[in-house]
Amino acid sequence: MDTLSPELRRRWELRVFLFLTVVLFPALAVAIVGGYGFAVWIFQIFTGPPGPIAQ
């Protein structure tokens, strides 16, 4: 099943690791935090900002 030589496999694993740590995870973090902020912003457009209950 594994037809790559150990050297090629090591190089491939290093590239995958670098892609995950340098590109994918930071992009996902920005997307998740930005998406949450956008959701809160839209929610507050409809419900108003948080604060004491108006009497």
Describe the overall structure:
It is a single chain. The protein is mainly alpha-helical. It has one domain (1-46). It contains 1 helix and no strands. The protein has one helix at residues 6-47. The protein is rod-shaped and about 75 Å long. 0% of the residues are buried. The model has no long low-confidence stretch (mean pLDDT 92). InterPro entries: NapE_TorE, Nitrate_reductase_NapE. The chain crosses the membrane at residues 16-43. Pfam families: NapE. It comes from Tahibacter amnicola. Keywords: Membrane, Transmembrane, Transmembrane helix.
Provide the fold topology:
Elements: H1 6-47
Pfam families: NapE
Keywords: Membrane, Transmembrane, Transmembrane helix
Transmembrane segments: 16-43
Helix content, binned percent: over 70%
How many E-type strands? 0
Radius of gyration: 22 Å
Strand content: under 5%
Distance between the termini: 71 Å
Shape: rod-shaped
**Poorly predicted residue ranges:** none
Instruction: Quickly give the structural class.
Output: mainly alpha
Largest beta-sheet details: none
Mean pLDDT comes to 92
Number of domains: 1
**How do the SSEs run, as a string of H and E?**
H
Number of helices: 1
Summarize this structure briefly.
This is Periplasmic nitrate reductase, NapE protein. With 55 residues, this protein is an all-alpha fold. It has one helix spanning 6-47.
What brief labels describe this structure?
55 residues, mainly alpha
